[in-house]
Amino acid sequence: MGSLVPGSRPAFASILDCCVAGQARAELGLVSASGECRFALAACSCFESGAFKGTAVVLTDITDTKRLEAKALRLSALYATLSAVNQANVHMDGPDSLFRDCCRAAVEKGGFCLAWVGQIDPETQSVAVVAAHGETAYLDGIRISVRSEAEGLGPTGTAVREGRYYICNDFLGSPVTRPCFCATGSSAALPSRPSSTRAGKQPWAP
């Protein structure tokens, strides 16, 4: 079926050790010959036939089940985030409290490692962080522009400049995010423009 991923080796060793007491079961992560990550349920039992003693391990592919479970958990977390954001919108004291509570909801309810809101400086066309929650060290000293320049070609600058959301599912490997340093697998930039923008105020960045 494939080789064990490093994190599954202790679990596999554990079920082999447990065989001396009878049967053992564990979920394992495997890498197939094609490089695909899959999941298996390993059932281990010891047997004895005359003078021969052995260990039998039966693997059942549960990849589809695990993927469905993960999808259900993600959807549940997103619905919980949406509910918390709606509550924040109802009880907000102003933009600052709303942005702060929305960021907290995304991290604590949605499971995101970082959520932040920025505002565009009309003179420099740079994005200033006004609220953040989670692994905020990534934002220390960060410079993001909405101009078509090096600091503006990432997810945030592109989303604001083009007026659309921008999702990057390979943050570490994408050439767009290569100038950034953040130990995360993906990111989403969602531009928002308040109705008062028409009166001359600048839009909020993701």
Q: What secondary-structure arrangement, pairings included, does this model have?
A:
Elements: E1 3-4, H1 9-18, E2 23-31, E3 37-49, E4 52-61, H2 63-91, H3 95-108, E5 114-120, E6 127-134, H4 155-162, E7 166-168, E8 187-189, E9 204-205
Helix pairs in contact: 2-3
The shape, in one word, is elongated
CATH class membership of the largest domain = Alpha Beta
For the record, give the distance between the C-alpha atoms at the N and C termini, rounded to a whole number. Answer: 43 Å
Identify the CATH architecture of the largest domain.
Answer: 2-Layer Sandwich
Looking across the biggest beta sheet, what order are the strands in?
1-2-3-4
Beta fraction of the residues?
Answer: 25-35%
Q: Indicate how many domains the architecture comprises.
A: 3
Q: What number is the mean pLDDT? A: 79
Look up the CATH topology of the largest domain.
Beta-Lactamase
Describe this structure in words.
By secondary structure, this protein is an alpha+beta fold. The protein folds into three domains: 3-61, no CATH class; 64-111; 113-206, 2-Layer Sandwich (Beta-Lactamase), CATH 3.30.450.40. The chain has helices spanning 9-18, 63-91, 95-108, 155-162, and strands spanning 3-4, 23-31, 37-49, 52-61, 114-120, 127-134, 166-168, 187-189, 204-205. The strands form three sheets. It has a four-stranded antiparallel sheet with strand order 1-2-3-4. The chain has a three-stranded antiparallel sheet with strand order 6-5-9. Strands 7-8 form a two-stranded antiparallel ribbon. The longest helix is centred in the middle third of the chain and has 29 residues, at 63-91. The radius of gyration is 24 Å and the shape is elongated. The two termini are 43 Å apart.
